[in-house]
Specification:
two-stranded antiparallel ribbon, 7 strands, alpha+beta, five-stranded mixed sheet, Lambda Exonuclease, Chain A
Length: 191
């Protein structure tokens, strides 16, 4: 079935123009980094550069340390970071073409800036099937956002350690909400 989709396209005839995604598939990081290098940019810390990042938040209950794994797609000219995304049609049309950055990507870039101690990160977005690419979104370090998210993570950590569930935000309509969908605790939370 996958081979058939690649050869003829999904739900429509695959024209040579639409077949371009087969040239780089999901290797969007490598292709974007290669294009930037071809344009004369020095890109370091590229794809496959995985590291652990520890961040400590100060809370009224004391410091809480979080550990996460960071996959830095690149550092541009030593002054800014790069995150590359390959998105499907829905996100392309309803988010990125309208200039909207999903909070998950925004937060990811904020965490990377915190880790690398940089004030600017670029988000390069490529259409998964057509290989079309948008001009990169420039994201600035947002100290208030990082502090707010750190407090939210600290509250979740404390709740998990104490066995107490947090009150669900009122914005959640049901457990099919995107933030709840993949959460291991949704069944307890929505019980």
């Amino acid at each position: 079935m996958i081979l058939f989709d690649c050869l003829v396209g999904k739900k429509e005839t695959m024209t040579p123009q639409k077949r371009s995604f087969l040239r780089d598939g999901h290797l969007h990081e490598e292709s974007i980094v290669a294009a930037l290098r071809a344009g004369g940019r020095e890109i370091t810390g590229t794809v496959g550069n995985e590291s652990t990042f520890n961040f400590t938040a100060q809370t009224p209950q004391g410091p809480i340390t979080f550990t996460t794994i960071i996959h830095t797609d690149g550092i541009i000219d030593g002054t800014a970071g790069l995150e590359c995304k390959s998105v499907k049609e829905y996100a392309w049309k309803n988010k990125f073409l309208k200039g909207k950055i999903p909070e998950t990507y925004y937060g990811q870039c904020q965490a990377y800036m915190l880790k690398h101690r940089m004030l600017t990160w670029f988000l390069a977005v490529k259409h998964r099937h057509t290989s079309e690419i948008l001009p990169p979104f420039e994201i600035k370090f947002d100290k208030e956002y990082v502090q707010r998210k750190a407090m939210e993570l600290a509250a979740v950590t404390l709740a998990l350690k104490s066995g107490q569930l947090l009150t669900r935000p009122k914005s959640k309509l049901n457990k099919r909400d995107s933030e709840c969908l993949y959460c291991n605790y949704k069944d307890q939370c929505w019980r």
